[in-house]
Structures are given as structure tokens and as C-alpha cells.
Design goal:
By secondary structure, the chain is mainly alpha-helical. The chain has 19 helices and four strands. The protein starts with 21 loop residues before the first helix and ends with a strand.
């Protein structure tokens, strides 16, 4: 039995409005905006809580005498668990109420964020951060699935861009807020208590939202019956494989950059921790506000003209981000501002990845499988990309630092050698941006065919009042 979509956000009574009236249309749009805002807040807290340890890398490193490899391994362990836990949580989001899955996950990761302040050793910190990763794993699958059912293809880039604004704003909050808190409290521990409070509040609010019906934004109301062999069906989509490859390479670059940016500014450019954190917030966070907002607008505009246009646009942005970040790393040590501007340009362009690729993924996956598809995509991009980025860069940093020491004929691994090692290791970032751009171009070549196939399949799987929404956002008659 198919149900009718109810546009109300918090109340059943307000949903009993004739959907043909302007009042109902405005209510539905307002409800979608409110739901999207709560999902954005959850995503902001997701990135804030996972990034906060990166602000305090140097104090933590000195407290327990850690190497860059150990620091990278802790970040990688978080990422691996995040990816693995995302698959069952994605399946849960496709089978159960998504708001309940998301709210529960928010409470879990907020609790472990607070527990980070209690870490008494590297080992305890390692396991506590794994707990944070388990909780955060449910955010993207549940949220992306809801967004896919709230907004039609022609508006998904902007919707995903607004949701993903949580990424740069989470980084801004972590870098700037973390710098302020350590200066005010003289401790790297207390900020983790503060970070846990908003998560509990947002979790309660999310419990009261009303979810859209699965398939609503595609013009089809789908029955709640399970899909046979869901993972195999997802992996048979050619575009999915290219998007997975792009996710692996872009996450390698993003996690390596975000994880070691403050350390690079402290070691190589000799900035104090507060100034380094604030500069990193501008480079990696503020740039995202423009990149995601303008990028989402451009991607939707291009998508109306060509179904594959948003992927081509994202690919071009990443292919330009590669030389921009390489030129930044080529700047001399006394040219910190030249580095910041060039690296910031590269990071701004990299943010277009999220509102182009994430939206394209929604367009080739049927609504009943979107949370699972996002979870599979995240599992690959985080296990093979996000987790390896900090570890590989951290290990390479240690190796290159020793090489610089040997080349100088020294016997002590000084901070200056460690600075050179980290700086030289980060050249992997532009290389990974280049791989990402190529993978997105290849995805654009299979996108239109896969999107059309998905629309044909869901047209035969449910009822389509008003017609099915085509891959370019146009209406097409249901089969």
C-alpha cells in the first residue's frame, strides 16, 4: 500500500492541506528547508567533532611524545571504523526511519567527543576516537537519502551544497573555535566537553521531523518492499565505480590536508598555534562557503542544459585545483601568504566535488537504495582514501625528515627537518586532485545512460502522479 507524502515538518495536523494550493506548496517548501537546515547542523557537528583533534595535534604530540605516523594512524583508525560502520547503518537507513538512525548516531558521537577530554594515553585516545567514528558513520547515508527525497534532480546540487556547507563551517568552527578555546582555557581537553552539548540538542530536534516518502522528489511513490541483492545492483552501475574512484582520491587529499594543515603552518611557516589554526580555518574552511554556494548554483544551472554537465564542471574545478595547490607548496618559507592564497584557491575549487558528485550519485541510484549506495561509496572512499591519507603522508613525512637530516650530515632529527619532511610529503595532495578530476570526467561519460536507466526502473516500481522526473529535471510520462 503506497502512502501519500506529508509535507509537514513537526505536525500531522498541518499536513492535511490540498497539495494543489499555493499555501500547501509554500508549506512544503518551508518544511523541506527546515529539514535541510537540521541536517546541515548535524553535518556541521559531524565535521567539527572529527576535526577538533587536528587543531591540537602539536600539544597532543608533545604530551605523549608521538610521531607523525602515530598521529596519522589515529586519524586513519577513526576513518576506517567510520567507513565500515557506515554500511550497516546505511542499510538501516534504507529499512528504518532515517530520523531515528540519525538522532541515535548523533548522541553516540557526541558522547564519545566528550570522552575525548578524558583520554589518559595515546591508546585511550585511539579507542575513544574510534567510538566517535562509529557514531558519525550514520550521518551521511541517512541525511543524503532524505535530501534525495526532498529535492528533485534539477535542485539537488544546491541542496547538497547547502548540506555540505556543514563541512567548511565545521572546519571553521573547529579551527577558529579551537584556537579561541585553547587560548581562553589553556587546555586542549576542555573544548571536547563544549563540543558535545550541541549534538544532544540537534539529535532531539531531528527526532521530531517528518520524513519524505522514498521516491517523492523523483515523481514516484515506491512501495516499502526490499530490493533483491541491493549491493550487487548498486555495483552494476558503471558511474558508481568512477564516483568511488574519485571519492578515494579526493578523500586522500582532503584528510591529509585537513589533518596536517595546522602542523604545517606551525612547523614550516613558524606560526604560533592560534595564528596557525586561524589561518587554516581560512584556507580550509572559509573557502568552502564560496565553493559550495557558488558551485551548487553553477552545477544546477549546467545540469539543466546537459545531464552530465555537473560532473564535467566538477572535474574541471579539480583539474585546476591540482596545479593551484602544487604552486602553493612550491612557495618559499618566507612567502606564507602566497602559500595561503594559492592553497586556498585550490581548496575552494575542490569543494565543488561535493555538490556535483554527491548530486550525480543520487541521480543514478533509485530512492530505496540511496542510503546503502552512499554507505558503500563512503566505505570505499574512507577506507582506501581518507584513512590512508593521514597515514601515508605521516609516514612519508617521517621518512623525508630523516632523509633531509642525512643530506645535511646531521645526527639529530630537529624540528626544522620535521618541517621539511611534512611540507614535501604534502605534494601528494595535488597529485590526488588530478586523479579525482580524471575520474569525474570518466563518470560523466556513463552518467546519462545510467540516470535514464534508473528512471525507467523506478517508473515501473511505483505510482508516478504527475510523471517521472527525468535526469535533467524535466517531467516525463511514467511508463
Amino acid at each position: 500500500m503506497l502512502r501519500t507524502f506529508t509535507p509537514s515538518l513537526f505536525s500531522d495536523d498541518t499536513s492535511r492541506v490540498n497539495s494543489a494550493t499555493g499555501a500547501s506548496s509554500g508549506r512544503r517548501n518551508g518544511s523541506a528547508a527546515l529539514v535541510l537546515f537540521l541536517l546541515f547542523l548535524a553535518n556541521l557537528l559531524n565535521f567539527f567533532d572529527r576535526t577538533l583533534p587536528a587543531v591540537y595535534t602539536e600539544p597532543i604530540k608533545h604530551e605523549w611524545s608521538l610521531s607523525d605516523l602515530q598521529l596519522g594512524a589515529a586519524a586513519s583508525a577513526f576513518t576506517v571504523i567510520y567507513a565500515i560502520a557506515g554500511v550497516p547503518l546505511g542499510r538501516a537507513s534504507d529499512a528504518w526511519p532515517r530520523r531515528k538512525v540519525l538522532a541515535a548516531c548523533l548522541l553516540v558521537w557526541s558522547g564519545f567527543t566528550a570522552a575525548t577530554a578524558l583520554a589518559w594515553s595515546y591508546t585511550s585516545l585511539f579507542w575513544i576516537r574510534i567510538g566517535v567514528g562509529i557514531g558519525e558513520a550514520g550521518c551521511a547515508p541517512a541525511s543524503s537519502s532524505i535530501i534525495g527525497d526532498l529535492f528533485p534532480p534539477a535542485k539537488r546540487s544546491r541542496a547538497m551544497g547547502n548540506f555540505m556547507l556543514g563541512l567548511p563551517l565545521g572546519l571553521v568552527a573547529a579551527f577558529f573555535g579551537g584556537a579561541f578555546l585553547i587560548r581562553a582555557l589553556h587546555s586542549w581537553r576542555t573544548p571536547f566537553y563544549v563540543a558535545a552539548i550541541p549534538g544532544a540538542i540537534v539529535a532531539v530536534a531531528i527526532l521530531f521531523i517528518r520524513e519524505p516518502e522514498r521516491g517523492h522528489a523523483d515523481g514516484v511513490l515506491l512501495a516499502a518492499k526490499p530490493v533483491e541483492r541491493p549491493i550487487l545492483k548498486i555495483l552494476r552501475i558503471p558511474t558508481m565505480w568512477w564516483i568511488i574512484l574519485s571519492g578515494i582520491s579526493v578523500n586522500f587529499a582532503a584528510y591529509a590536508g585537513n589533518g596536517f594543515m595546522v602542523s604545517l603552518l606551525q612547523r614550516y611557516f613558524k606560526l604560533p598555534i592560534v595564528e596557525a589554526a586561524n589561518t587554516a580555518g581560512c584556507i580550509a574552511g572559509v573557502t568552502g562557503l564560496l565553493g559550495l554556494t557558488f558551485g551548487g548554483f553553477m552545477a544546477d544551472r549546467i545540469h539543466r542544459r546537459s545531464p552530465k554537465g555537473r560532473l564535467v564542471f566538477g572535474a574541471v574545478c579539480l583539474l585546476v585545483a591540482a596545479p593551484a595547490t602544487y604552486l602553493a607548496l612550491s612557495q618559499p618559507r618566507e612567502s606564507m601568504w602566497a602559500f595561503a592564497v594559492l592553497f586556498g584557491i585550490g581548496w575552494l575549487l575542490y569543494y565543488s566535488y561535493y555538490n556535483t558528485t554527491y548530486a550525480a550519485l543520487q541521480d543514478v541510484i533509485e530512492p530505496r537504495l540511496r542510503a546503502t549506495a552512499i554507505a558503500i561509496y563512503f566505505a570505499c572512499m574512507y577506507v582506501l582514501g581518507g584513512s590512508s591519507g593521514p597515514t601515508v603522508v605521516g609516514g612519508l613525512s617521517d621518512k623525508l625528515a630523516r632523509r633531509a637530516m642525512q643530506a645535511a650530515g646531521a645526527t639529530e632529527l630537529t624540528p626544522d627537518f620535521r618541517a621539511i619532511g611534512l611540507h614535501d610529503a604534502l605534494v601528494l595532495i595535488p597529485a590526488m586532485f588530478l586523479v579525482t578530476g580524471v575520474a569525474m570526467l570518466l563518470a560523466s561519460m556513463t552518467f546519462a545512460k545510467d540516470a535514464e536507466k534508473m528512471q525507467r526502473e523506478i517508473a515501473g516500481a511505483g505510482t508516478a502522479p504527475g510523471g517521472v522526473v527525468g535526469p535533467g529535471g524535466e517531467k516525463a510520462e511514467a511508463a
